[in-house]
């Protein structure tokens, strides 16, 4: 029986319009990224990646120290730090802050952590209206869908889809012009910014030494969210730390380029605490929510700790042949693409998401583009191993285990391997011409259902090797 | 146990560290500063910045340029001394000198142009650096559909690396430092570039030599 994940994959694959949309959008992202990291444009690119990776590793390896430093600095500047062990604690904290300040309307800028903890649903239940203000997120909120892509939430929607949605949900006159649609959203959201009592943001980076939140964007909605309302709440994971402001010189060069192919985005905000004496606009109260929700578990796993390096640029999704086919909504959890395939099982527990680490061709493209050098393919393999170990413990793996033990024994004994190859000939159809095998025998049929098996070569690789290297070994008898 | 202590103790046991244990120095910041002449920095800024750049030979030229871009529009100016000295704040349709939050906000919403200076600009990548404080403010460069920034040429730094050498910790100076790379933009609908989503769709930088 097909699992939910498999069913979702089929839904995505059979939607041709969707396939075209994802393919072209991710291709554009990929091209733009390649242009701005080309060796003649950014010769130091590899050096920047190395440096970023080293900084992340150092910070995570001493995370307790940097967390305490950050907390002290935020408090010195009149901000509040709220530690949240899990999703429940985090949403409760936001709701409590909302109550304390009599909040009815909260404007939100894009935050993957708020997706992860299902913040909007909790706010609605508690009579606080959350309004997403990033255009893509706003479209997703109107459609009642979750983000399709880490960087481009509405990547799968065509202008026609957005037009329909605006007519249905906002009652406006129909237009398919992105310019006009954007204008409509600007007008509606302007009103929200000015009347909202609270602004909720995420964080791209937390600067320990400064007690600051760094936010990177193009639209200006983050600046509005964090400047207009009286209360600013930043909700983020404990892994976002970097030691000093000067480290941004490396990270900002990588983030914009890897994410959207921009040397710098339109706005980068460096915010530390509530507004100060002499500053006219800015929040009166600032809260920083530091969310664990599974992150300390990942931290404890030295082999996979580097998963926490991620700066959520989305580059790995754009190059992933699997994401580019199955799309973002097929992945369970808030995070899609290769990073989702390694993050979600670690957050949720492998028992919940055993299929995700297998949703990869292990082509290596994700690891190659990752600006902070997360070895995603290696993480995927390690997770696959963990899944299989778990299954073995539950004794659900017996036939597969036997088969692989047999295979591994054959592989370790060259003479057996060679004879096995010769024996396979007996079961395979005659060679030459188009002798692809379209229907495998017995249980192998499942494999040939979706692909063909190549015919056996007339001469084996081992035989050719012997012949070319001039070593005259005796051919074993069939 | 409160969440704070629970999380910190989990972090420590994950890392095999104890409370208060010393930490080796972090890898030093990677700051490489090119030595570009002022002309070079102006040239690169104009090339890299995604808004429009106008180089004014003197204060009068700068003021006239601003006047031409604010003609017939309500404008709000920040309390920057640069704008006052150049006479920009005194232009007929420019309001300035705000101290009250609500009044400033209403003026920003109604205005067609926001005029500011900037603490710095960066040549590569092209960006303005605005620190909120007695001179600058968060909304003037954001809410109106057109933003004009007037800066003395010698405030143009070469790179992000130089910015973080000059301002190693922005938090010591302001609750808000923003780098502005150009107009507000989005590609959220079919990756079609659309300007002026929540911020200005036009940004002019006037460099005064
Ligand atoms: S894993 Fe790497 S490439 Fe993927 S989103 Fe995170 S930082 Fe970007």
Topology overview:
The complex is a heterodimer of chains A (about 475) and B (about 210).
Chain A: H1 4-13, H2 16-37, H3 45-61, H4 63-76, E1 80-84, H5 87-100, E2 105-108, H6 112-116, H7 119-125, E3 129-132, H8 135-143, H9 159-170, H10 178-195, E4 198-201, E5 205-207, E6 212-217, H11 221-227, E7 231-237, E8 241-242, H12 248-260, E9 267-271, E10 285-291, H13 295-300, H14 315-319, H15 323-326, H16 337-348, H17 365-369, H18 376-393, H19 398-412, H20 414-427, H21 445-450, H22 461-468
Chain B: H1 3-15, H2 38-48, E1 52-56, H3 59-70, E2 75-77, H4 81-86, E3 94-95, H5 101-110, E4 113-116, E5 120-124, E6 127-131, E7 146-152, E8 156-159, H6 160-166, E9 176-180, E10 185-186, E11 194-195, E12 202-208
Parallel strand pairs in B: 1-12, 2-3, 2-4, 4-7, 5-8, 7-12
Antiparallel strand pairs in B: 5-6, 6-9, 10-11
Bound molecules: iron/sulfur cluster.
Note down, in words, how this protein is organized.
The complex is a heterodimer of chains A (478) and B (209). Chain A has 478 residues and is α/β, with parallel strands linked by helices. Chain A folds into three domains: 37-293, Rossmann fold (3-Layer(aba) Sandwich); 297-394, Fumarate Reductase Iron-sulfur Protein, Chain B, domain 2 (Orthogonal Bundle); 402-468, no CATH class. Chain A is built from 22 helices and ten strands. In chain A, the strands form two sheets. Chain A has a six-stranded parallel beta sheet with strand order 1-10-7-4-2-3, with helices on both faces. Chain A has a four-stranded mixed beta sheet with strand order 8-5-6-9. In chain A, strand 5 and strand 6 form a beta hairpin. In chain A, helix 16 packs parallel to helix 18 (376-393). The longest helix of chain A has 22 residues, at 16-37. The mean pLDDT of chain A is 92. By secondary structure, chain B is an alpha/beta fold. Chain B has one domain: NagB/RpiA/CoA transferase-like (Rossmann fold, 3-Layer(aba) Sandwich), CATH 3.40.50. In chain B, 28% of the residues lie in helices and 24% in strands. Chain B is built from six helices and twelve strands. Chain B has a six-stranded parallel beta sheet, sandwiched between helices. In chain B, helix 4 links the parallel strand 2 and strand 3 (94-95). The longest helix of chain B is centred in the N-terminal third of the chain and has 13 residues, at 3-15. The N and C termini of chain B lie far apart (61 Å). The mean pLDDT of chain B is 97. Chains A and B meet through helix 2, helix 3, helix 4, helix 8 and helix 10 of A and helix 1, helix 5, helix 6, strand 9 and strand 10 of B. Strand 9 of chain A pairs antiparallel with strand 9 of chain B. The complex binds iron/sulfur cluster. Residues 150, 258, 310-316, 339, 369-372, 374 of chain A line the site of iron/sulfur cluster.
